[in-house]
Amino acid sequence: MGDFMKKLGGAEKTFVVSGASSGIGRWVAKTLLDRGFGVLAVSRRLPEIDDSDFFKWVGVDLERSDSSEVLLNSIAEAGLKNIVGAFSNAGSYLSYCHESSSVCTFEKQFSANFYSHLNFVSAILPSLQDAAGLKSLVFTTTDQIHRVKDGGAAYAAAKSALHAYSRSLAVHLAPRKIVVTSVAPGGTDTPLYWATKAGMSAQQVQGSQTKYPSGSIADPEEVASFVVDLLTKPKMSCVGAEFRIDGGLCCL
User: Fold this and answer.
1) I need a surface site. Which of 1, 87, 90, 194 has the fewest CB within 10 A?
2) For residue 251, is it within any domain?
3) How confident is the model at residue 131 (pLDDT cuts 50, 70, 90)?
4) Nearest to 179 by CA among 221, 222, 218, 237
């Protein structure tokens, strides 16, 4: 592990990516590696990513109360001094029936989609503050904070809390040259998206996609490319900005 971390530390810049086991998080990790950056991936499951000298996985559940300490210790033990950006992307979606929902329904979604991000930020913030130059921190929210779906209030509420937190954090960290932004994806071709369509007919799925002015849901590789640009080319003028990637739904 020591030799491996020396190689990872040899990357000019390293980025920490949470929720890296699938979907947008996995594509962001892959895109960063393809562009020659180091990646410290954080997720419950090992991401399916080709072996690389500049890739390291930390298996941790960010919903656990001790996850921040585990991740912080992993970074300290690695001796990484070149962490200049982070993508806070952990989360999950739970649809529910209003008649059977409870406080527990909302607690589960806040744990996955808000508290997990607090734990992640607590662990990576010291590294970002110590790094020289402009640094970046990008959050994943959702377009549903602007247009809530039936049965999606718990998810939207948790992501709305994350959106508010990211904007407050952006103001707080700007003087320290850390550019905080967020991306709010709409439907994206990921396992999470298809899980929400379980039980729908092919015709229903097709109908749900044609509502996008772009003609289809987003390609996760395309979304990842945009996120990587935010991570690797931070700009102070973008502090606190939210970027909606929803195929034009925000225009309707």
Assistant:
1) 1
2) no
3) very high
4) 237
